[in-house]
C-alpha cells in the first residue's frame, strides 16, 4: 500500500483497516462506510443520528507536535505564495528541511490523550429510561407556571405565548431523547471496546485517525486486529519520500545543498523508523485496551545481488504495554529502548537495513 503526496499534502485516502476475524470486514481508506453493528438494532439508526462520529462522543482533542504544526504553516505559506524569487525559494526549502529533521527526531515525543473506556462504560444515563428528562421537566414547569398578565390578555397574546411554551416542551423532549441516545451510543460502544469487539476497535482507528502525522510525512499504515489484546500495524516507511537526499545549509551566500551521504541517510531512516514504531504503540495504547502492539515496518530497498528493488520488512517488533509504561520519550534513545522488546532487525550504518522475517 503506497500513498502519493504532493509537497507534503496527502492526496490519497487514509489507512486501510481490517479484522482478522473470519469473514471480517475490510475498510478501504478514510472515505469508506463506517463499520457498524455494535449497537442494539432497534435503536441503531436513532443513536447514530444523535451521536454522529465516534470522535464526537468524547472530549479528547487531537494532539499535534510542534513539528506537525510548523509543517501546516509551511504548507499554508507555500499555497499562499503566488510567485517565488530564487532567495525566497531557497529559504523555504531550508525551512522545510529543518522541519523534516525536527519531525524525524521528535516523532515519538507526542501522543494523543488516553480514552478511559471503563469510565465511559460506568457513566450513568442523563435520566432514567421511561421517565421525563430534565429539559422537558423544566419546559413543562415554565408552561405550568405561566399566568398571562392583563396586558397580554388585552392584546390577545396569551394564546400565542402558551402555544410557544407548549412548543418548547416538545423541543425539550426531543433534546432529552437525543441526549439519552447519545449517552447510550457512547455507553454501548465503551462496553463493546471493553468486551474486545474487533469491529469497534477498527471504527476507533478509522474515525479517530491517531497517526495523521505519519501519513502526512509520507508513510502508509494498515491495521489488523489480531485479538482483543493485540493489534498489528504495517508501516510503509516510504523512505524515498520521508528521508531527504540533500541537506539545506544556510550560508552568507544563500543556501547550500550538499548531498547527504549514505550513512547519514541511513541514520535518519533508523531514527524515523524507531521513533515511528514507538509513536504507533503509544497512540494505540492510548486509544484501546491492548496488551501489545506488533509493528511490521516495510520499505523498498535495492537488492545488491540482483540489482532489483524489493519491498521488504526492515523491522518487526512487538511492544508490550508494560514496557511502554516505563518508556520516557525524549530521555531515552529510541533504538536503545526498542532493544528491550522482542524484535527482528538487521541494520548496518554503511549499508542500511536488510530484510528480516515478520514476528508471528
Helices, strands, pairings?
Elements: E1 5-6, E2 9-10, E3 16-19, E4 26-27, H1 44-51, H2 66-80, H3 86-106, H4 117-122, H5 134-144, H6 150-154, H7 158-194, H8 198-208, H9 212-217, E5 220-227, E6 230-236, H10 239-242, E7 249-251, E8 254-256, H11 262-287, E9 292-302, E10 309-320, H12 321-324, H13 334-338, E11 342-344, E12 346-348, E13 352-354
Parallel strand pairs: 3-5, 6-9
Antiparallel strand pairs: 1-2, 3-4, 5-6, 7-8, 9-10, 10-11, 12-13
Characterization of this structure:
The protein is α+β, with helices and mostly antiparallel strands. The chain has a domain at 5-38 and 66-106 and 197-354. The chain contains 13 helices and 13 strands. The protein has helices at residues 44-51, 66-80, 86-106, 117-122, 134-144, 150-154, 158-194, 198-208, 212-217, 239-242, 262-287, 321-324, 334-338, and strands spanning 5-6, 9-10, 16-19, 26-27, 220-227, 230-236, 249-251, 254-256, 292-302, 309-320, 342-344, 346-348, 352-354. Strands 4-3-5-6-9-10-11 form a 7-stranded mixed β-sheet. Strands 1-2 form a two-stranded antiparallel ribbon. Mean pLDDT is 82; it is low at 1-51.
Helix % is 40-55%
Average pLDDT rating: 82
* Strand and helix order: EEEEHHHHHHHHHEEHEEHEEHHEEE
Strand count, sense and barrel status of the largest sheet are: 7 strands, mixed
The end-to-end span amounts to: 21 Å
Number of strands: 13
- Uncertain runs are 1-51
Number of helices: 13
Shape: elongated
Q: Report the portion of residues in β strands.
A: 15-25%
Nearest-angstrom radius of gyration?
A: 27 Å
Strand order of the largest sheet: 4-3-5-6-9-10-11
Sheet/helix structural class:
alpha+beta
